[in-house]
Specification:
It comes from Geobacter soli. InterPro entries: C-di-AMP_synthase, CdaA, DisA, DNA_integrity_DisA_N_sf, DNA_integrity_scan_DisA_N. Belongs to the adenylate cyclase family. DacA/CdaA subfamily. The chain has 261 residues and is α+β, with helices and mostly antiparallel strands. It has two domains: 81 residues, no CATH class; 153 residues, DNA integrity scanning protein, DisA, N-terminal domain (YojJ-like (1). It is 52% helix and 15% strand. The protein contains ten helices and seven strands. It has a seven-stranded mixed sheet, with helices on both faces. The structure holds adenosine-5'-triphosphate (ATP).
Length: 261
């Protein structure tokens, strides 16, 4: 009798490596929670599809197969922007905070922007002015956000602070940062529907959580009521105690993905 290990050749190893790589890239791309759930449904349907075939349940196999194809189509439609962006930028060295070409320039620029974000957050926090700052990573957020006002400005703590001052016409809502640029202000984010959220959190924090449940991005929140600064990512809220820990958290979350994964 042939041993399984004797049948397993280099072709199988390459085959498994390719499939594992595709699944890994899919998980990275669809890391927001809703996308994750869709991916799990897809995996479940794939398992049912294979099992129903093995068991010889023809009708059930046909139904699951149709559901499977429809779900793939729905995924492609839902994530068309992200898929296009991922394909266009595949293999490129991308930093969420800068378009700088060389590695040192990229680090310096990113560090400068993180410094501006920290200065703005601490200044707003000390004056009990609420703020909501969305920082895109690999995925775009605008398909989940009500557009607000175009800003297209360099990121400085002064601009960020003045946007959130109560008499600013665009202080309500969130600002969106893409590749180190302040793109929009006054944006409305989807609220989290998670019933387990701490009841003490108001709508500003629910909005930050809501967006990060849907899209892989980082949201910096300053509470108007308490002045606390927190960072939300992947539907979780991370309170930060001071500027040093805020720098640490932002640096970690905003490194180019190929360095962190
Ligand atoms: N869905 C949303 N998208 C964007 N901004 C929002 C959203 N919901 C609330 N905000 C912003 O948060 C502000 C304050 O809302 P609210 O007082 O309900 O939140 P809060 O969490 O209690 O505030 P804080 O924690 O800062 O005291 C709003 O005026 C608005 O600027």
């Amino acid at each position: 009798m042939t041993e399984p290990l004797q049948i397993f050749g280099w072709r199988d190893a390459i085959d498994i490596a390719i499939v594992a790589w595709i699944i890994y890239r899919l998980i990275i791309m669809l890391r927001g929670r809703v996308a994750y759930r869709l991916l799990l449904v897809l995996a479940f349907l794939a398992a049912l599809y294979s099992l129903s075939r093995l068991a010889g349940f023809e009708a059930f196999h046909w139904i699951v197969g149709s559901l499977f194809s429809s779900l793939i189509l729905i995924l492609v439609i839902l994530f068309q922007h992200d898929i296009r962006r991922a394909l266009m930028t595949h293999g490129k060295h991308r930093h969420p905070l800068t378009e700088d070409r060389d590695e040192q320039g990229e680090r310096d620029h990113a560090s400068l922007i993180i410094g501006e974000l920290i200065a703005a957050a601490t200044s707003l926090s000390s004056r009990r002015i609420g703020a909501l700052i969305v920082i895109e990573r690999e995925m775009g957020v605008m398909s989940h956000v009500e557009t607000g006002t175009e800003v297209d400005a360099k990121i400085t703590s002064e601009i960020l602070t003045s946007i959130f001052l109560p008499y600013s016409p665009i202080h309500d809502g969130a600002v969106v940062i893409r590749r180190g640029k302040l793109m929009r202000a006054g944006c409305f984010l989807p609220l989290s529907q998670d019933p387990t959220i701490n009841k003490n959190l108001g709508t500003r924090h629910r909005a930050a959580l809501g967006l990060t449940e849907l899209v892989d991005c980082v949201v910096l929140v300053v509470s108007e009521e308490t002045g606390t600064i927190s960072v939300t990512v992947g539907g979780r809220i991370l309170p930060v105690s001071d500027a040093v820990s805020l720098r640490k958290v932002l640096k970690k979350l905003l490194e180019p993905r190929w360095l962190t994964e």
